[in-house]
From TrEMBL:
Classification via InterPro entries: Rossmann-like_a/b/a_fold (IPR014729), UspA (IPR006016)
Location of the UspA domain: 5-129
CDD domains in the cross-refs: USP-like
Organism lineage string: Eukaryota, Viridiplantae, Streptophyta, Embryophyta, Tracheophyta
One Pfam family per UniProt: Usp
Protein name listed in UniProt: UspA domain-containing protein
Taxonomy, superkingdom: Eukaryota
């Protein structure tokens, strides 16, 4: 039996984050893994810090609970929730990942994802997070109908819409599962599939005397 893996899932109010979690539940997580649902909230303004912070934490916790409900739909999942106040540039996420000693972090990629900002700035993603990084790219709505999702692993050199950037993390592009049409195979017709299945019918011989010429 292998060591228990602690996998951090970045919780965001984005469809890409929910899609990433659903994909991982189908394809990545295994029995015994501890799924840590991590949500980082931005510091509120100083004037209304106490009240705003309380509301933000409550909203963040309810958001994480909605992610836990997705996990609970799968058998025997072990989840933890962490809501932490911090910045949006990924440093707080990196701190929590290192504190937990996580073996992997799962991120749903979107336009404002901190992984994109790190990669564009030349930051070593894997070194700063200290674990394997799995980034899930959500397909467009017309490309992927709802349902079970499958993935296609891309190389570390990933093409964006504007340019080519060397990303220091594993990116997976997912698409809807399409079942190909399977035609019924043609079975060749055999005249004699089994000799024992042939029924022989014998006809009685006609007596020659019956057709004798009477003189």
């Amino acid at each position: 039996m292998g060591d228990v893996r602690r996998i951090v899932v970045v919780v965001e109010d984005k469809e890409a984050a929910r899609t990433a979690l659903q994909w991982a539940l189908h394809n990545l997580f295994r029995q015994g893994d501890i799924i840590v649902l991590l949500h980082v909230i931005s510091p509120p303004p100083r004037k209304k810090k106490s009240t705003a912070a309380r509301l933000l934490r409550r909203h963040g916790y309810h958001l994480a609970l909605s992610f836990r409900e997705i996990c609970d739909a799968f058998f025997n999942t072990n989840t933890e929730i962490i809501v932490r106040e911090g910045d949006e540039d990924g440093r707080t996420i990196a701190e929590v990942v290192k504190e937990l000693g996580a073996s992997m972090i799962l991120v749903g990629l979107h336009q404002n994802s901190f992984l994109y900002r790190w990669a564009m700035s030349g930051i070593d993603v894997t070194r700063n997070l200290g674990c394997k990084v799995m980034a899930i790219k959500q397909p467009s709505s017309e490309e992927s109908p709802p349902g079970k999702l499958k993935g296609r692993m891309t190389s570390h050199t990933t093409a964006t819409s504007d340019s080519l950037t060397n990303f220091d993390f594993s990116q997976i592009e997912i698409s809807g599962l399409q079942v190909p049409e399977i035609r019924t195979p043609k079975v060749p017709y055999r005249l004699c599939p089994s000799p024992r299945a042939i029924l022989w019918r014998t006809r009685p011989r006609r007596s020659k005397a019956r057709y004798a010429v009477v003189s």
